[in-house]
Amino acid sequence: MTDLTSLHYTDEHEWIALEGDVATIGVTDYAADKLGDVVFVELPAVGTSVSAGDVCGEIESTKSVGELYAPLTGEVIEINDAVVDDPSLVNASAFGEGWLIKVRVDAADIDGLMDRDAYVALTGGEA
Fold first, then answer.
1. Which of 34, 40, 69, 112 shows the greatest Cβ crowding within 10 Å of its Cβ?
2. If you average pLDDT over every residue of the chain, what do you get?
3. Considering only CA atoms, which of 58, 66, 76, 80 is closest in space to residue 31?
4. For the segment 43-100, what is each residue's pLDDT rounded down to a tens digit?
5. Closest Cα to residue 53, out of 72, 66, 33, 34?
6. In 3D, which of 65, 82, 46, 23 has the Cα closest to residue 6?
7. pLDDT digits (tens, 9 = 90+) for 15-47
8. At what positions is N6-lipoyllysine found (predicted)?
9. How far is Cα 81 from Cα 56, in angstroms, rounded to an integer?
């Protein structure tokens, strides 16, 4: 089980795990639950530059279509092909096998993100 208090969060319901200068990014279980059954995930190509706050992909569910926003600026160094092939991983394991992309970032940029307590407050205690 991932230590949820060690992650950083955005108000777009994404989580970020930082290891050195590599950020692993996914959507939270709260977001996955609100989306419903995820049926399609579109991710940026490896080598793509992403900018914090900009759309970098799409996630579709049986309920809606949503945009994925880059929480940090950097270069995509890996995508989770397993999620592209089986989008239900987002629902089944949002904080594990359902991660989306890995981005090489400036680790100092993480300072603008929320900690677990702030994210739980944002979701009204539902996260």
1. 69
2. 93
3. 66
4. 999 999 999 999 999 999 998 898 999 999 999 999 999 999 999 999 999 999 999 9
5. 72
6. 23
7. 999 999 999 999 999 999 999 999 999 999 999
8. 63
9. 16
Both tokens assigned to 46: 């490896």
Domains of the chain: 4-112 (2.40.50.100)
Nearest to 37 by CA among 95, 98, 102: 98
Gap between the Cα atoms of 50 and 65, Å rounded: 20
- pLDDT for the residue 111: 84
Contacts for 109 with CB less than 8 Å, ≥ 6 apart: 52, 72, 73
